[in-house]
């Protein structure tokens, strides 16, 4: 049934549902003294156990960390012992004095200088010396003399004095078996930085040495047969 109001404002006098004050029901906890306390439910994060914070997980992470540190320390010690023995072998090679390097020794050292690095460390100098049968100090001095020669040539071709950092600026610093090395960009274009290691360097030098020996044997065989020896240059 519709109700008509004589006064239009009387309709607005009827309280609506929204006008009633809302009351929030709160649970109360009665203490032993009879007073009541408001009850606040615990949060989800307080009820649900956090992942990775249990004592078992902490012990597992600690064990993994200790195992990793022990493995890294063991690998470092093994490498130091290997480099020490390799350097000992290179130092035991008798020095040839002022006798110049043979064609094979020179080509191998030049390949390392031009294609890999002009700054080989003691591990790579020792490996190279053992492969080409040249003493440690002779190989090390050859690289030092070659860097000085390139610096002189650079000063002759450029009017301004060459800076010592010019060669180093063209190199890329990488981490190899736990130490830093500076390689040429050509070496990193052929292989990734993480692929370079002492074993990989030894493999590269051995393969190049084998190609040089094979090329020399072919030239000797052709010369023995009286055939002309073509000048094919250094094997790539």
UniProtKB/TrEMBL annotation:
<feature type="domain" description="Homeobox">
    <location>
        <begin position="98"/>
        <end position="153"/>
    </location>
</feature>
<dbReference type="GO" id="GO:0003677">
    <property type="term" value="F:DNA binding"/>
</dbReference>
<keyword id="KW-0539">Nucleus</keyword>
<feature type="DNA-binding region" description="Homeobox">
    <location>
        <begin position="100"/>
        <end position="154"/>
    </location>
</feature>
<dbReference type="InterPro" id="IPR001356">
    <property type="entry name" value="HD"/>
</dbReference>
<feature type="region of interest" description="Disordered">
    <location>
        <begin position="1"/>
        <end position="60"/>
    </location>
</feature>
<feature type="compositionally biased region" description="Low complexity">
    <location>
        <begin position="1"/>
        <end position="18"/>
    </location>
</feature>
<protein>
    <recommendedName>
        <fullName>Homeobox domain-containing protein</fullName>
    </recommendedName>
</protein>
<dbReference type="GO" id="GO:0005634">
    <property type="term" value="C:nucleus"/>
</dbReference>
<keyword id="KW-0238">DNA-binding</keyword>
<dbReference type="Pfam" id="PF00046">
    <property type="entry name" value="Homeodomain"/>
</dbReference>
<dbReference type="InterPro" id="IPR009057">
    <property type="entry name" value="Homeodomain-like_sf"/>
</dbReference>
<feature type="region of interest" description="Disordered">
    <location>
        <begin position="146"/>
        <end position="165"/>
    </location>
</feature>
<keyword id="KW-0371">Homeobox</keyword>
<feature type="compositionally biased region" description="Basic and acidic residues">
    <location>
        <begin position="147"/>
        <end position="156"/>
    </location>
</feature>
């Amino acid at each position: 049934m519709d109700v008509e109001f004589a006064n239009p404002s009387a309709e607005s006098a009827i309280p609506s549902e929204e006008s009633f004050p809302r009351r929030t029901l709160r649970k109360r906890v009665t203490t032993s003294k009879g007073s009541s306390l408001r009850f606040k439910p615990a949060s989800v994060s307080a009820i649900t156990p956090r992942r990775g914070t249990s004592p078992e997980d902490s012990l597992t992470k600690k064990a993994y960390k200790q195992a990793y540190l022990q493995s890294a320390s063991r690998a470092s010690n093994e490498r130091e012992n290997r480099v020490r023995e390799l350097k000992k072998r290179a130092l035991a090679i008798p020095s040839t004095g002022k006798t110049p390097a043979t064609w094979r020794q020179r080509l191998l050292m030049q390949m390392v200088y031009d294609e890999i690095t002009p700054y080989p460390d003691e591990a790579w100098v020792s490996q190279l010396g053992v492969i080409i049968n040249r003493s440690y100090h002779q190989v090390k001095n050859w690289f030092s003399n070659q860097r000085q020669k390139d610096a002189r040539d650079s000063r002759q071709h450029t009017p301004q004095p060459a800076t010592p950092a010019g060669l180093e600026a063209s190199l890329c610093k990488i981490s190899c078996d736990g130490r830093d090395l500076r390689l040429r960009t050509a070496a990193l274009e052929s292989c990734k930085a993480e692929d370079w290691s002492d074993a990989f360097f030894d493999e590269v030098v051995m393969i190049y040495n084998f190609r040089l020996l094979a090329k020399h044997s072919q030239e000797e065989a052709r010369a023995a047969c009286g055939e002309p020896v073509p000048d094919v240059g250094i094997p790539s």
